[in-house]
Automatic annotation (TrEMBL):
Domain Manganese/iron superoxide dismutase N-terminal, residue spans: 104-184
Organism: Gottfriedia endophytica
Chain ranges of the Manganese/iron superoxide dismutase C-terminal domain: 192-293
GO molecular function, one term: metal ion binding
Keywords: Metal-binding, Oxidoreductase
Name of the protein in question: superoxide dismutase
EC class name: oxidoreductase
Family indicated by similarity: Belongs to the iron/manganese superoxide dismutase family.
Family annotation (InterPro entries): Fe/Mn_Superoxide_Dismutase (IPR050265), Mn/Fe_SOD (IPR001189), Mn/Fe_SOD_BS (IPR019833), Mn/Fe_SOD_C (IPR019832), Mn/Fe_SOD_N (IPR019831), Mn/Fe_SOD_N_sf (IPR036324), SOD_C_sf (IPR036314)
Length: 307
């Protein structure tokens, strides 16, 4: 149980610290793009602190505040040391076998400033999409995992169907968005090289044919969902899939390489009803190096085919 007096004192210290950070940014970093990102994160944290009256007894809220403070502090130290803050580790293959306990997933930071993908994806969309929508999937996944663990412990399975659906929806939403951020880059576009290009040529005939097919599949997604380029270990080839929402009408035993979010929250504020332009502009910011990196790892996995 958290001591309430200590909790209130901690929140006050965080508020004071946020004020000092904003003052430092104002005095020393007028021209830096990272300044805008840091200022936004600090102000977002201060806004969340105003909800303490609703969460004062929740240890999870304290953990979230502490995580935000650590993120801001890490970015600030990198800026003070005149180093580029690199979040790419969040998306790279790792050798660590440390597991994430149920209910402990965290929102991965964006690997670039909110305005980095303009004019193709606006800063406002990136803020809402990442900080609100993606965060909601992380929160939903954590809650579903906790409820499922509780069901196993208590042997009470009356709501297990509901929580399994929540697990699939929010878990898929979290994982797909994590891939989505990683395969976008302000210096993207063009086409891939190396083994990925070779595989695309083998499976689709030409890069132009692949690009046109992926684009058309995306435009034909019914309702809200995704288009996904996947590696199929059982067939030893690439395929393009649709999925509605995040988890419906897709295919198991495949590995996502390139994903495109066509939920309305991904484009509507900027493109309104012109979803086609959003899809067409997507090709200007695809980070083919990242997609190729994913393919190099995925392509090593091959199952016994049956034909």
């Amino acid at each position: 149980m958290v001591n309430q007096l200590e909790l209130v004192t901690y929140f006050q210290e965080v508020e004071d610290w946020c004020g000092n950070v904003l003052q430092l940014l104002s005095e020393r970093y007028d021209e830096l793009q990272e300044k805008e990102l840091l200022e936004y994160k600090v102000r977002l944290l201060l806004n969340r602190m105003e909800t303490t009256s609703y969460y004062i007894d929740q240890v999870s809220f304290l953990d979230e505040i502490s995580t935000d403070v650590d993120d801001i502090q890490g970015r600030l130290l990198a800026l003070l040391n005149e180093e580029e803050y690199d979040d790419s580790y969040s998306y790279r293959a790792v050798t660590s076998e440390e597991k994430i306990e149920p209910g402990k997933h965290e929102l991965p930071p964006l690997p670039y400033p909110y305005n980095a993908l303009e004019p193709y994806i606006s800063k406002e969309i990136m803020m809402l999409h990442h900080d609100k929508h993606h965060k909601s999937y992380v929160d939903g996944l954590n809650r579903a995992e906790i409820e499922i663990v509780n069901a196993r412990k208590t042997k009470q399975y009356d709501l297990i169907k509901h929580w399994e659906r929540e697990l699939a929806f929010h878990g898929s939403g979290h994982y797909l968005h994590t891939i989505f951020w990683s395969i976008l880059n302000k210096d993207g576009g063009g086409k891939p090289t190396g083994p990925l290009l070779t595989q695309i040529l083998n499976d689709f005939g030409s890069f132009e044919d692949f690009k046109d097919f992926f684009t058309q599949v995306t435009k034909k997604v019914e309702g809200v969902g995704w288009a996904i380029l996947v590696w199929v270990p059982r067939a030893n080839r690439l395929e393009v899939l649709q999925t509605e929402k995040h988890q419906l009408f897709t295919q198991w035993d495949t590995i996502p390489l390139l994903v495109l979010d066509v939920w309305e929250h991904a484009y509507y504020l900027q493109y309104k009803f012109d979803k086609d332009s959003y899809i067409n502009n997507f090709w200007n910011i695809v980070d083919w190096k990242e997609v190729s990196y994913r393919f190099e790892y995925a392509g090593q996995l091959k199952w016994q085919p049956y034909y």
